Amino acid sequence: MNKNDLISAVADSSGLTKSDATKAVEGVFEAISGALKSGDEVRLVGFGTFSVAKRKASTGRNPRTGEPMSIKASSQPKFKAGKGLKDAVN
């Protein structure tokens, strides 16, 4: 399922027009992204938790040359599925 499929599914299940469903889906994505950007965690009970993990700076190797190289510290988005989502899949 891609973004357009998701928008169509939201429109069908909620009775919204496709343009309203697009605004709703975009709004959800923006809200989650904004919360993660500010360092907050987004908990959707029964679905899962979006959070940000801090990765430390490290040294790695260039796969082509084998030379050591430094990898900068970064923040990575993370998702942990909730019980309701796990049960729905299994």
Roughly what is the average pLDDT, rounded to an integer? 94
* N→C terminal distance: 19 Å
> What shape does the CA trace take?
elongated
Give the class from helix and strand content and strand pairing.
alpha+beta
- State the strand order across the main sheet: 1-2-5
Major beta sheet summary: 3 strands, antiparallel
Quaternary structure classification: single chain
Low-confidence stretches: none
Radius of gyration: 18 Å
**Total strand count, please?**
5
State the helical fraction.
40-55%
Number of helices: 3
Residue share in β-strands? 25-35%
Give the H and E element order.
Answer: HHEEEEEH
Can you describe this structure?
- The strands form 2 sheets. The protein has a 3-stranded antiparallel β-sheet.
- With 90 residues, the chain is of the alpha+beta class.
- 2% of the residues are buried.
- The chain is elongated.
- The mean pLDDT is 94.
- The chain has 3 helices and 5 strands; from the N terminus they run H-H-E-E-E-E-E-H.
Key terms:
single chain; 90 residues; alpha+beta; 3-stranded antiparallel beta sheet; two-stranded antiparallel ribbon; elongated
Quick overview:
The chain has helices at residues 3-14, 18-37, 83-89, and strands at 42-44, 48-55, 58-61, 68-71, 74-81.
Break the fold down into its secondary structure elements and pairings.
Elements: H1 3-14, H2 18-37, E1 42-44, E2 48-55, E3 58-61, E4 68-71, E5 74-81, H3 83-89
Antiparallel strand pairs: 1-2, 2-5, 3-4
